[in-house]
Design brief:
Length: 433
């Protein structure tokens, strides 16, 4: 063999030119990259599996082959566990021991795997416990995740396949690892109780600032405004988590996995591998946008206790779509709803309009108010009616979805109240909420 030659010569073949050698090099780099990604993914899964806390839940529904839809219950816990003393002192948190549910979200992956819906359940929502006693939804969580899952199944008929909760410490760590979160504040917000102090406009928030922002209950809509802020925050965090900036930064990715894994509790059957597969499958769906809404509700004092009451027709419309594994109907953004003026005709149902429908629309973020009895041809008998005004079909659809009905054109010869974008005629169904 001639010095410098590696093995015998092969005749009859073609020498690789410059482009060929480049193609071979790129192919090799591709193999190396795929291998590196696979190893990194395996290491991430192993790291997360090791740090997760597992809880046994015997109330969960079994996943069957009959449907591809998946339903998750996600809880943000107010637990101070894991926070250092100086972190507690630096945050406006109040004092209590144990844990409370600060955020309760039902997550539904649609049957066709093309949509994800997130539905916020107000923590003061009126429900019945297993003995039929009226309690707040948050009280069920105080009795443990099994009790919360069973309460949601029993009261709303919703399946729950998996459960996960994240503590306050996890929330703070994720925002810190991401280097803060950018949120567009729609109006000035100052709240001594939560520590919020923001002018309107785009704000880049530190973990402490973001926590103060989403915990504030300031304003006429109180807890409903806070839910809007929580959803706004979730959109911003999810946007950052699926961004190329995070996915291409291995140190940050490993830190995020540690932040989440060490502060998350899940049911025993929800594996990190399943979470990863779902996240990978829905990355484009998340980037394109996903549905977030809140159970339409109004407030009521019962025996001296303030509760949130689900508006039955609107809530049932949401729950029925979730049960069928269907994406939820569009309800507009919070800014779009805030710009929508809804006039309410009450006909024979003055009390239902005044104490149920108008508050439900206001707490859902619309500008709503009573506008009188309304003409006979627009009268709602059994079912509340929603009318399109001046071509505002989208706005009418948002209102109709909130109230659990279908929009329709105004009857011939009927004029809407001045400045109204949508008209609602209240029916008897509202009185039974």
């Amino acid at each position: 063999m001639t010095p410098g030659e590696w093995g015998p010569q092969v005749t009859g073949g073609r020498r690789l030119n410059g482009w060929g050698r480049l193609g071979l090099a790129l192919a090799m780099l591709g193999v190396i990259a795929v291998t590196a990604i696979s190893v990194t993914t395996l290491m991430l899964i192993q790291q997360a599996e090791a740090s997760l806390t597992r809880v046994t839940l015997d109330q969960l529904d079994e996943v069957t082959e009959a449907s591809n839809a998946r339903h998750f219950l996600v809880v943000g816990s107010d637990s101070r566990e894991g926070l250092a003393p100086d972190e507690r002192r630096g945050l406006t948190l109040g004092e209590f021991e144990g844990q409370r549910s600060d955020v309760i979200i039902y997550v539904s992956v649609s049957e066709d795997r093309r949509g994800i819906s997130l539905v916020s359940l107000p923590r003061d929502l009126l429900v019945n416990d297993e003995s039929g006693r009226q309690i707040k939804l948050a009280d069920a969580f105080a009795a443990g995740p099994n009790a919360l899952v069973a309460t949601i199944q029993r009261n709303f008929g919703l399946p729950v396949h998996h459960y996960a909760s994240i503590s306050l410490g996890g929330f703070i760590n994720v925002v810190e690892t991401l280097g803060g979160v950018t949120i567009d504040v729609p109006e000035p917000l100052r709240d001594e109780r939560s520590g919020a102090d923001f002018s309107s406009g785009v704000q880049h928030m530190t973990p402490d600032e973001a926590l103060a922002y989403i915990r504030s209950r300031r304003g006429v809509r109180a807890d409903f405004a806070r839910i809007d802020r929580q959803q706004q925050f979730l959109r911003a965090i999810i946007r950052d988590l699926v961004s190329a900036r995070v996915l291409s930064n291995p140190p940050q990715l490993f830190q995020l996995v540690d932040d989440v894994g060490s502060n998350v509790t899940t049911d025993e059957s929800l594996t990190i591998g399943e979470m990863y597969d779902l996240a990978d499958e829905f990355r484009q769906v998340v980037q394109d946008g996903f549905s977030m809404t809140t159970v339409p509700s109004y407030t009521r004092k019962i025996n001296g206790v303030d509760y949130v009451i689900a508006y039955r027709p609107g809530a049932e419309a949401i729950f029925e779509s979730l049960r069928r594994g269907e994406p939820l109907a569009d309800r507009g953004t919070s800014n779009e709803r805030a710009d929508t003026v809804v006039a309410v005709w009450w006909g024979e149902h003055l009390r239902a309009a005044d104490t149920i429908v108008v508050p439900t629309l206001i707490y859902s973020g619309f500008q709503a108010g009573g506008a009188g009895i309304g003409p006979d041809t627009a009268h709602a008998d059994g079912t509340t009616r929603v009318f399109v005004v001046n071509g505002n079909a989208d706005q009418a659809a948002w209102v109709a979805a909130t109230l659990g009905v279908r929009p329709e054109p105004l009857p011939d010869g009927v004029a809407a109240p001045q400045d109204a974008d949508v008209v609602v005629s209240v029916g008897a169904d509202a009185s039974t909420s």
